[in-house]
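User: For my dataset I need records formatted as: sequence, then structure tokens, nothing else. Please produce one.
Assistant:
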Amino acid sequence: MGHFYFSAKFSGGRNVVLVEGVRTPFLMSGTSYADLMPHDLQRGALQGLITKTGIDPGVVDYVCIGTVIQEVKTSNIAREAALGAGFPEKVPSHTVTMACISSNQAISSGVSMIAAGQIDSCVAGGVEFMSDVPIRFSRPLRKTLLSLNKAKTLGARLSLLSRLRPSFLAPELPAVAEFSTGEVMGHSADRLASAFHVSRQEQDEYALRSHTLAHQATQAGKLTDVLSYQVPGTTTVLSADNGIRVSTPQQMAKLKPAFIRPFGTITAANSSFLTDGASACLVMCEEKALSMGLKPKAYLRDYVYVSQDPKDQLLLGPAYATPKLLEKTGLKLSDIDVFEFHEAFAGQILANMKALDSDWFSQNYMGRSSKVGAPPMEKLNTWGGSLSIGHPFGATGVRLVTTAANRLNEVGGKYGLVAACAAGGLGHAMIVERYPS
């Protein structure tokens, strides 16, 4: 087993543990959560965490929540959700955004504060609500309305109104494209799959695997992080994800390319879907958790963040972060018992696997003498992944970390490795170590 230096060097002897992680069911946007607001979902995840752990919210020192497309009315959604969930007003809360690794950042922010001795406990989480996104007036109309608000005379107001044009009324939707490149992520994924020679058949097979494994895990009761969640204002109680669809290769092959037509390989069937959902986890210093009689699931060990060219290497975060983290911790690929990699697209995850398994890529792009190798499939996302379970941007990181801990406890493994890509060419990886029984 590789040498591990984390607790001695990174945290000055303070071990940081994951006590518990939960999430609302992840639902396809526009379904049963459609009439809610994002803080409703995040509040539900926080309340579910309190109930499951049995902790008094007053013992929590800090709340950190990740989100991507913010609801402007609750710009610090961590604060609003925490207050709504019953956390005392004395508990500070802040919101982080780092695209698809926002709740990864929420967790690592908590880990760092605990390791530094600033706090003893943190609730980290994330939420995304794609059923309702902020749509703005056009900028010319906004400027006119703001000026109108300041105009003091009727003449000044009429003068401003006379400048309005029909074109001003066109709404602005949140950008689905990279700001720096103007390219949508699906287009980038298509080019990435092509660059690494990932075929349409490989992608469809991987997507089918994800949905099949998620279905099997759900049926077997393994997804214990999923809460029973009563939709506010209704009698509806949900306890399962609704985007898991076990199709057939024949049905999947019928779908047309979604981004690059007619020759692209990314389709609706091998991509993650727009998802509503929230997650939350309790992270503590080990001594505090044990003094309260809590049984941790895992140690949260070391982590890294990486970033690359947002055009040609937008989604290669796991390929860069995995070797960097293994080298930093002194672990080998063979030391890892459980891999939880974010699945944005089947083409993306398979391209990362091929990059990790390529000496040429490692030498030419990462400055390494040789490859570290790709995770064996029998250790990768064996309970499904973002393609099937869903991907609420801000919430996925907590799901990955919690699932890695739960899988380690099921198989009796020692180390798990979580990795994810994110918009902007960003990436993250973290080592999770099973807590000894």
